[in-house]
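User: Here's a chain of 286 residues. Predict its fold as tokens.
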Amino acid sequence: MRAVPPHFSINAGYRLAALHPQVSRLPDLAPHLILLLAAAGFFAGFVDAIAGGGGLITVPAMLIAGIPPLQSLGTNKVQSVFGSASATIAYARKGHVNLREQLPMALMAVFGGALGAALATIVPGDVLRAIMPVLLVTIALYFALKPNLSDVDSHRRITPFVFGLTFVPAIGFYDGVFGPGTGSFFMLAFVSLAGFGMLKATAHTKLLNLGSNTGALIVFASFGATLWKIGLMMGVCQFLGAQLGSRLAMRTGARLIKPLLVVVCIAFTIKLLADPANPIRVWLGV
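Assistant: Prediction complete.
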């Protein structure tokens, strides 16, 4: 398979898919690569249900398996829907999120995710890649250094109506445009603005992640950028991993969620900066 240049953009991917529909039809993967993707899906579901960051695991795994960037992004949304839905169901069953009450907020996330994916072709990807490491380090420091973070709700700084009308679609939009780190942004918003405890914030983050993933998936699928067999196979594995992760999170609460969230943010920052094509490295000449 021909190597994809590091500056490959979503915009270029859309044009490629439109001009060459066969790009979505890959040859059958070797058994060991299928096992790699299945394991990646399960582990991603486990981690994502607790602290977010599942895409940090699944997207690189698909690229390693030889799936082109555009199809990796679209297929990632297929299996991400399974993982976020699994975690949402688990949290809702235990009363950590009321699905009926939060439905309007989830729909705003769907709208944001779909709009972001639709407008991905005109958003400067280099800017997003440049600011992501800074934002993720900031989030990691916030959760690592802020005292008294627990599962107990704190002072609310913004009403649910305003929160759902502004921050939810904005973060959902980011998820559609770029994706990685969305769960961390939702967590930060819920804890710092909505006053949620760590476990409650995690539960609501999974619901909104489900919304933004669904919205983005609709758009990616319309462009033919999804490999359904691979996505569904990984989705089943991610569903199972998310069940395990959410149950562990509900058992241990902030004692597990907080440090894992910090680790996920730092790990993804390192991954971004390890790319020689990252704009920060290009600007610094390193």
